[in-house]
Design brief:
Shape of chain A: globular
Oligomer: heterodimer
Helix content of chain A: over 70%
Radius of gyration of chain B: 19 Å
Bound molecules: adenosine-5'-triphosphate, magnesium ion
Distance between the termini of chain B: 36 Å
Largest sheet of chain A: 2 strands, antiparallel
Shape of chain B: globular
Distance between the termini of chain A: 42 Å
Order of helices and strands of chain B: HEEEHEEHEHHHHEHEHEEHH
Chain lengths: 368, 278
């Protein structure tokens, strides 16, 4: 007998998980947007622009953390290039935002300012269709997935693994960064895209738009977590974990690891692309710095801090590390990288299973 | 030894596991029309100039239980690596039935075709439960897309439960496999092999680390499998080989030194020299 798909999805999380998600949904989809929109500024319950934007941004990072955990925690593939997929999604949506500026730029041209500055007379061919919202959404999904698929196909087919794979992905994001730095590439060089004005005709800085983007980020995060839970609890997830632990054994019982890795790798890149597309309109800028090797390493740190292979852990990790970051970069900006390094070393040495592992140990001790 | 050939054929016709060759005159699956399941002809494998297999010739009949012995480093494991696609031979041919050229197939393809392997060092999925280990091994559609939506049927569940009983791990079903004793791990791996429903089972030192009692039971199990399946057992334990009672092949320095029943082989002066001279 075949079990309906909805029942399988429901079975992907325990009851407590669904309750927690319901609470999260109530807070992020209703409470926070309402407090932002309808409670006047200055009122103690007003949720400020800063909080909404920071929250939205961190939820985008959390999506990336889930994506990273799927490949690293479950499939054992350490990627140090996930920042690139995030940035590709961001750039794809950024193109739409640039076109949305219309003639309101400094040069009052139909072309984005940086193209006028470069003395370009028309849009390069690959900007065709970038004014279409629907096409943009497709590109946001397709570009990171396609890059990941092609790269993954060759890497996994050659059975590149572990440190070698990590180094190659790191080189890949670095190369992409250099490419995007060039003005001739046609993506705004080192300044990237900024000064966005509107989405679908609505003012991008309006409270309504901020609240909408915030809620969409929360929704995307919940869906990413649910998809991750479904994958992890499915037979697919068990095969993936088996590939992580003993790849050759998996082949001898008849599974082709290439297809499994390629699927999860491409899916993960797609999640990053979605996160990037939600991130860019909220922070108002995208530049090649997002592809810097350090950014991708930071993603791995979120996952390690939260706890690999737990999905919820990396979300907490992304929240914690970025929470610290926004505090540190204001209080002692020059020490942030030292702190991040120390955090990583500390977690690796003392908390190999991250915050979630710590929580489990505490609960076990209390129960005993 | 009676082998039900039609049974083999129908077992493999489905192609629902994604291995079916489309638009081909040949029947999918292994062709046993000559009652031989495995041919190794003039196989040579060298590692940095060292010949691990040297012009090895071996044929296994359908339904046969064959024992392979030989001193350490004789090439027994390497031979299994060649059959399962892990190692490509430098020379020679390796056929599964009349039609399947194993030297041109990947490891998962060979597994699909119906060859299962138990490794010398028990390799199970230590972080998965005993039950999950068997679930992963079970014969079914193993493509990624199918696994995404796979849901264990009651029928599959029953099969796993039966196999758990067969390998006496029914009380360990929900424990992580990494916590099993060495002998239990061997049994689990044998159980995984059974779940795959292969036609040819390759067993590399299956009773190493087992108690005498466990060894004897393993022997009984293998004997009960022969006939419907073909088995190739590599062992050093002579008492176990005697219990199995099949034809014995002696490997030495990568080729066949002697072949026959155990008593004949043990009386062969060349074999005695190889075993004493090491
Ligand atoms: N990948 C490899 N690289 C180099 N040499 C190898 C490799 N695999 C096997 N050998 C060598 O090939 C020879 C045959 O090895 P094999 O493992 O097949 O022997 P075996 O008969 O299974 O021995 P044992 O009884 O110890 O398991 C050995 O000398 C071994 O050192
Ligand atoms: Mg061996």
């Amino acid at each position: 007998m075949r079990t309906p798909f909805t029942i399988r999805v429901l079975a992907a999380m325990p009851r407590s998980g669904w309750i927690a998600m319901g609470l999260f949904a109530a807070i992020t989809l209703v409470l926070m947007p309402a407090l932002h929109l309808f409670v006047p500024e200055g009122h103690p319950f007003h949720v400020s622009n800063y909080v909404i934007t920071l929250g939205g941004k961190i939820m985008c990072y959390a999506i990336v953390a889930v994506a990273m955990d799927l490949v690293w925690g479950y499939a054992g593939i350490l990627s140090l290039g996930h920042g690139m997929f995030f940035a590709l999604g961001g750039y794809a949506f950024g193109m739409y935002l640039m076109r949305g500026i219309g003639t309101d730029g400094s040069y009052q041209s139909h072309l984005p300012d940086f193209m006028v500055f470069l003395d370009w007379k028309e849009l390069p061919w690959y900007w065709a269709g970038s004014d279409s919202f629907v096409l943009t959404l497709i590109l946001v999904l397709a570009v990171p997935s396609l890059v990941a698929f092609v790269f993954g196909y060759f890497a996994f087919r050659s059975r590149i693994k572990g440190v070698y794979f990590a180094i190659i992905t790191q080189a890949l994001t670095f190369a992409a960064m250099l490419l995007f730095f060039r003005n001739e590439t046609g993506f705004g060089g080192n300044n990237g895209f900024t000064d966005f004005k509107r989405i679908l005709g609505y003012d991008i800085t309006s409270p309504e738009m901020r609240a909408t983007l915030f809620a969409l980020s929360a929704l995307a995060l919940m869906l990413a977590l649910l998809a991750g839970r479904y994958l992890a609890t499915s037979k697919f997830g068990r095969v993936l974990a088996a590939i992580r632990d003993a790849e050759s054994r998996v082949m001898f019982i008849g599974y082709n690891p290439l297809h499994y890795k390629l699927f999860i790798w491409t899916f993960s890149a797609m999640l990053c692309g979605i996160a990037g597309a939600l991130y860019v309109p909220q922070v108002g800028i995208i530049n090649p710095g997002e592809m810097s090797p350090a950014n991708s390493i930071e993603i791995a740190i979120w996952v390690a801090v939260g706890g690999r292979g737990t999905l919820i852990g990396p979300i907490i990790g992304a929240g914690l590390v970025n929470g610290f970051k926004s505090f540190f970069t204001v209080a002692f900006p020059e020490y942030w990288l030292f702190f991040l390094g120390a955090l990583f070393v500390g977690v690796t040495l003392w908390l190999p299973e991250g915050v979630v592992g710590l929580w489990k140990r505490i609960r076990a001790r209390v129960a005993a | 030894m009676s082998t039900n050939l039609t049974d083999y054929d129908t077992d493999n016709r489905g192609g629902e596991d994604g291995t079916q060759v489309v638009g081909h005159i040949l029947q999918p699956g292994v062709d046993l029309s000559h009652k031989v399941i495995l041919y190794l002809e003039a196989i040579s494998v060298s590692f940095d100039g060292f010949k691990a297999l040297n012009n090895l010739n071996l044929t296994i009949d359908a339904g046969e239980l064959r024992c392979i012995i030989g001193p350490n480093g004789a090439g027994k494991t390497t031979m299994m690596d060649v059959i399962t696609g892990k190692t490509r031979p430098d020379a020679g041919t390796c056929f599964f039935g009349q039609t399947l050229d194993l030297t041109r197939m990947t490891e998962p393809e060979i597994a699909h075709a119906g060859i299962g392997r138990k490794f010398q060092k028990p390799t199970i999925f230590e972080n998965h439960t005993v039950f999950e280990n068997l679930e992963l091994a079970m014969k079914t559609d193993k493509r990624a897309w199918a696994s995404l939506f796979a849901w264990l049927s009651q029928e599959g569940r029953d099969r796993i439960t039966d196999t758990l009983k067969q390998v006496r791990l029914d009380h360990e079903a929900d424990r992580p496999a990494g916590l099993l004793s060495h002998g239990q791990k061997q049994w689990l791996e044998i159980g995984m092999l059974l779940m795959q429903e292969p036609q040819l089972l390759l067993l590399d030192e299956p009773v190493a680390g087992m108690t005498d009692d466990e060894t004897e039971r393993t022997g009984e199990l293998f004997k009960s499998l022969a006939g419907k399946h073909s088995l190739v057992v590599v062992e050093h334990d002579m008492a176990f080989i005697e219990q199995l009672g099949g034809k014995v092949t002696v490997l030495h320095e990568g080729s066949v030194l002697a072949e026959g029943d155990l008593a004949t082989v043990q009386a062969d002066p060349r074999v005695i020299e190889v075993y004493l001279g090491r």
